[in-house]
Amino acid sequence: MVAGAVQARVLSTIRGQRQWSPWASPGTFLGSRGQSQALFGLGLRIENGRYPQAELTVEALFVGSPIVKKRGRAVELVGPHGRDALVGLRVEMVQAGGRELGMSRANALAPEQRLQVFRPRVGEK
Fold this sequence. Notes:
3% of the residues lie in helices and 40% in strands.
């Protein structure tokens, strides 16, 4: 993906209710810091005016469900039952015609920046 072009939000349980977080800029933490709460949905969108020829191709895996696939400039993915935790994700930015966007080395993310998984430390809940 192209650095700094995609905003995100997540569906999680906040004070006992399922709620979407506000849209967050690239590099912003999303989720339940230190609470190990599951994510039940994910929204992604290409920032307005950025890369007008691009769209997102997203595949999400929710516990006990088949892979959910969506494509567009803005996508929201929720498991088929609405209560399934998100456990896998693949995101690509492609040209509207389906080809991958050419990216310069300056815009490409290093492999270690593409995915971050946060897990509780031993003894934390």
